[in-house]
Amino acid sequence: MDQFGTLDNLLQEERVFRPLPQLVIEANVNPQELEAHRRMAGHDPLGYWEEAADELDWFKKWDQVLDDSDAPFYKWFPGSRCNIVYNCLDRHIETYNKNKLALIWEGEPGDSRKYTYFELYREVNRVANALRSLGIGKGDRIVIYMPPLPETVISMLAAAKIGAIHSVVFAGFSAKALRQRINDAQAKLVVTADGFYRNGQIMPLKETVDEALVGACADCVDSMIVVRRCKVGVDMTDGRDFWYEDLIRNERNISPTEVMDADDPLFLMYTSGTTGQPKGIVHSHAGYMVGVHRTLNHVFDIKPTDIFWCTADPGWVTGHSAVVYGPLMAGTTTLMYEGHPNYPQADRLWNIVAKYGVTIFYTAPTMIRMLMRFGIQYTRQHDLSSLRLLGSVGEPISPEAWIWLYKNIGRNECPVLDTWWQTETGMFMISPLPISLLKPGSVTKTLPGVEADIVDRDGNPVPAGKGGLLVLKRPWPAMMTGMWNDPDRYREYWEKIPGMYFAGDVARKDEDGYFWIQGRADDVLNIAGHRIGTAEMEAAFGAHRAVHECGVIGVPDTIKGEAAKAFIVVRPEVEPDDELIKDLKRHIRNELGPVAVIKSIEFRDNLPKTRSGKIMRRVLKAEELGHEIGDLTGLEDED
After folding, report:
1. What is the pLDDT of residue 410?
2. Collapsing DSSP states into helix, strand and coil, what is residue 559?
3. pLDDT tens digits for 166-222?
4. Are 201 and 284 in the same domain?
5. SS3 for 570?
6. Is residue 120 part of a domain?
7. Which 8-state DSSP code applies to residue 60?
8. What band does 453 get if pLDDT is binned at 50, 70 and 90?
């Protein structure tokens, strides 16, 4: 018996966990209703999503639910007029939600702020007016390079309220990565902070933006708004840079909400692909708000008394859908924390849960694995009895981590709802509900209105229990509506297996129809739930003076799930040594930021290639993991 009791023995079994009777009795969607939803979605999927749309407020209803005449460029609810911010804020201040807490925020030093729906509404209005005063209007792009602060949420909502398109960039990205995103979006304005607190230190941000704005993209950015978080000295450029507090101080707290067409873009989310250039995924107002609202409410069974805490950073799609837009549309209370989960010690998350009475806790397997290392001594120091539901997102969760979360955080009472979805899908796609039978490590079944399957490379379904490629067989409302200025890259999702959306994940489906996600099928690494392309990392290595060529693969990592290993051929005049390894790791951190975790670097005289000269990453991976390399003939055109 180990520290997890009989876990070693349990992991060799297939276990099924049943929900507590009280959860089923109190569920917003009971088993009979779920089955009715599935039947309706099966025979009338557009009727199902129309019913979901009727739960929200519209300035004008749609002419049709789905226009698929230009597939795969699907248009949801064409002819409608709406704005997601109206459903997040405006409608709530006309109801009993007006004085309910919308946002609870805690800073790493222990400071905190709270906003009711009415207070958040007025603050968003002030910022919306400030944006308009800076010349920002409908269709303009705003880059938000911010840590988890209230002003991050407020800036997102203010941008959407006036019809601008926001692109939130994770504050851990480097100046070069930020510059790429600003330049691609042709952003007119950047919102940032002087710095933020992380693991007891002040992390500067403004200077990174200043560095990013030196170069090709400097001409497109007219203004920068700076939040004074840490009160550290920063350089302010006259006429371009404005302190957030100064800018909004005299603005009115009433501001009109822009009326948007259904397919007007809401935000750009840059994500890594199999090429070196990040791709700007576009989500639009109407479909995104319908899909996110329906699936978040169903999966997390939102109650009027809930305190919803998703630990994701706003810079990722999980932060958009499960920290900002989803909870606010649902009229619940969303919680944000600024800092490191282990500061000042490894009980910080559990302290926050107990302090605010969190009822729903939604996090990533990486976080769970990190906290598992400290055992259960810290969990026992806090009263976690307020918790009702637990959730997992971002990467496959192992049965071991699932059991630890269920047993030590959920007290063997809270279901662990493992959700599968992507930046591209916008909403939950495969997930249990609180009433579902659960198998540790499985994301269970598709949600109503979603059709997924496991197929081979020709699109043929594979038998139960066999591994294959995860595909989606029909469109869904919150799907991305395109790739920013790059329709060909969008089409690729639908052309790899014609007529199906290629998710890029390897998975299997068991005899009960439960899905088990096994990892990425393409050249995209999933490091602590953050996607980064191998090509992007190889391009960064290639910019180093010592590197002749490079191949990057993903390797297992105990905490982060996956990390990167680089195989490098150095230039003839270079002698590889430990100092060069350190310098290369520093270089990658500077190029891409701390999200690019390099586990190890191996120097080689040459790399395996196809006859057309492409590096064969799968050969490197097979060698690294001790797998069979397989037949290498006929690989002239293999990527």
Report:
1. 97
2. coil
3. 999 999 888 988 999 999 999 999 999 999 999 999 999 999 999 999 865 557 999
4. yes
5. strand
6. yes
7. B
8. very high
Does residue 374 share a domain with residue 245?
yes
At 291, is the secondary structure helix, strand, or coil?
Answer: helix
Strands (E) across 447-546 are located at 452-455, 467-472, 482-483, 501-509, 515-520, 524-527, 530-533
Token pair listed for 13: 């079994």
**Domain-terminating residue out of 394, 418, 442:** 418
Name 261's bridge partners: 81
Q: Are residues 277 and 298 in the same domain?
A: yes
Query: What is the extent of the structural domain holding 621?
Result: 524-625
Does any domain span residue 383? yes
Number of domains in the chain: 3
Same domain, 475 and 549: no
pLDDT in tens, 395-439: 888 888 899 999 999 999 999 999 999 999 999 999 999 999 999
Residues 602, 542 share a domain: yes
Question: What pLDDT is stored for residue 629 in this prediction?
Answer: 53
Q: Are residues 332 and 460 in the same domain?
A: no
Helices in 54-190 by DSSP H: which ranges? 84-85, 117-133, 150-161, 175-185
Reading the block at residue 31, the tokens are 């088993």
Query: What is the C-alpha radius of gyration for the chain, rounded to an integer number of angstroms?
Result: 24
Last residue within a domain, chosen from 366, 392, 418:
418
Q: Which residue in 619, 618, 617, 613 sits closest to 636, CA to CA?
A: 613
CA 545 to chain centre: 34
Q: Which two tokens stand for residue 448?
A: 């109503």
Q: Both tokens of residue 393?
A: 């997102």
Residue 359 in contact with residue 387, Cβ under 8 Å?
yes
The amino acid at residue 469 is L
